[in-house]
Amino acid sequence: MSGRDLRQCLQNGLLVGDGAMATYLYQQGIPVGICYEELSLTQPDVIRSVHRAYYEAGARLIETNTYGANRERLERYGLAGKVTRINREAVAVARSAVDDDAFVVGSIGSILAGRVPHYDTEAYRDMYEEQATALLHAGVDGIVLETFLDLEELLLAVEVIRPLTDRPIIAQLALMEVARTRDAYTLDGAFAHLAKSGVDGVGFNCRLGPTELLRALEQTVMPTDLWISVFPNAGRLGLVDGNYEYQTSPAYFGESALRLREQGVRIIGGCCGTTPAHIRAMAESLRDLPPLPRVNPKNKTESSARRVPIHLRQRNKPTIVERVQREYTVIVELDPPKDLETSSFLEGAARLHAAGAAAITMADNSLATTRMSNMALGAIVKSQLGIDPLVHITCRDRNLIGQQSHVMGLHALGIDQVLVITGDPTRIGDLPGASSIYDVTSFELIRMLKQLNEGISFSGKPLKQRAQFVVGAAFNPHVRHLDAAVRRLEKKVEAGADFIMTQPVYDADGIRQIAEATAHLDIPVFIGIMPLTGYRNALFLHNEVPGIKIPSDVLERMKDLKGEEGRKMGVAIARELLDVAMAYFRGIYLITPFAYWQMTEELTRYVLRAKQNALVQSAGGQG
């Protein structure tokens, strides 16, 4: 540890912090994609030179090169077994780079790091304790918790680390917008919670530049008995001549340091994009200046509590979940066309609706093959034909930005019944060079849709209206171990799924097995039935589609049939399967093969005739 006391130093003066590590290393020629934290072991002289450059520029608070040196992050590089060693050596490298008048603080970054805000609390506790223990045993002067988008994760880290040490802890939030944390706390409320947690300092770092963080400070009631620290980015990252760069100049940082001091900030440094030149400009601006007291804004009326909007749009029809709880309910899949012509699709949708389908469900580029937008077609069938659409949402095709934009658009169109699927990889489709995104899993996307129902965006921002998504989960029973598939399905139910849609089933025993395996679930199951169109189609499904097996007697009945004869037999076999399915399930999911909507139209009428017959028999028995 340093010979000086960090608390005493900040009681009476300002401290200039250091600047960026990762972006500065990149500027020095270190490639992206490697583990920068490991460089403290493999190239300690490189890390030492960065620390020394910041020290010589005037920084007297040096952060260790350990921002991502937690077990979860290091595991991605095969380094999970080196957590203690990397953190310990990073402290030694930083200490050896500076003189005795500098403080070395251990940097601990958010483990969640901007991903979907759902995590195993106990696992995170263990990881924070492991990293903090290594840094503290190595002799840091304090701990800086930085780049936390979510207050609740930051509070968890403080709860774990505070009992380990009496050394100072500084807790820094990163903001997506000036007024709130990602998990929807106002900044007033967030810092009030942190003050109660036992930290010594609070503040901001990363994502935003000096002006935006100044604006956040001007609007926020900060705890007056805690230090304030601010480490802004060098502005916003922009594309210049084909390269991504930060444009904010050192001179501007020097001017900004004075404005931060006026807000009562005691520790002023830099984050992404800053260099020793930026730190030197700030150190020169602040040289020999005393700190100024914090003056909080007056007449604040906004509550510091976490807000949840209450405005809810009214439904005018029951959902498929509400319907299936009381009667046989048929949803029919009709895939969007692969070209620009829509008349056949719309005719089929209208006929299926007239036959009694409760909803028309549309895949989202099934089999990774490009099709017309199911959002657009869903809006057309809803507005022009009065049909309830149920659109699939794949994890494959959109990043998180596009995914939220897409579902917000669905909400605006009144399309609120959806099925979440992972999606086949693009390499099997008609554009194999396209990228598969998979920013989130199907479990995470289900949770995020239900989060919109709470009035909270994917990023944690409060919304002015709650969504009303009824979210379905896909279930593939065609696996070697059905119990494992059911356990996966249970996790989707835990994530918030409202109903289940299965892959097509072709044998009575399979239907009965699915009924038994899912009987304990408290949400409805729509059993999938897809009529065969001919012998070749049956052979393809039996031999080339993973998991699907067509019973030998069905193959025999389809043998050598094609065209109209094949489709006729396919419908007859599907009716027999429906007879079995309706004994176990009220939810029926009919899948239209190759746009032959006439087949699923006939099967829809068959199910609803069976429903009417059951009602008649029930009424006769009561009489």
TrEMBL record:
GO terms for biological process: methionine metabolic process; methylation; tetrahydrofolate interconversion. PANTHER family: SLR1189 PROTEIN. InterPro entries: FAD-linked_oxidoreductase-like, HCY_dom, HCY_dom_sf, Mehydrof_redctse-like. Residues 3-286 form the Hcy-binding domain. It comes from Polycladomyces abyssicola. The keyword Methyltransferase applies. The keyword S-adenosyl-L-methionine does not apply. This is Bifunctional homocysteine S-methyltransferase/5,10-methylenetetrahydrofolate reductase. It comes from the Bacteria. Pathway: One-carbon metabolism; tetrahydrofolate interconversion. Zn(2+) binds at residues 206, 271-272. Keywords: FAD, Flavoprotein, Metal-binding, Methyltransferase, Oxidoreductase, Transferase, Zinc. Its cofactor is Zn(2+); FAD. The lineage of its organism: Bacteria, Bacillati, Bacillota, Bacilli, Bacillales. One of its GO terms (molecular function) is methylenetetrahydrofolate reductase [NAD(P)H] activity.
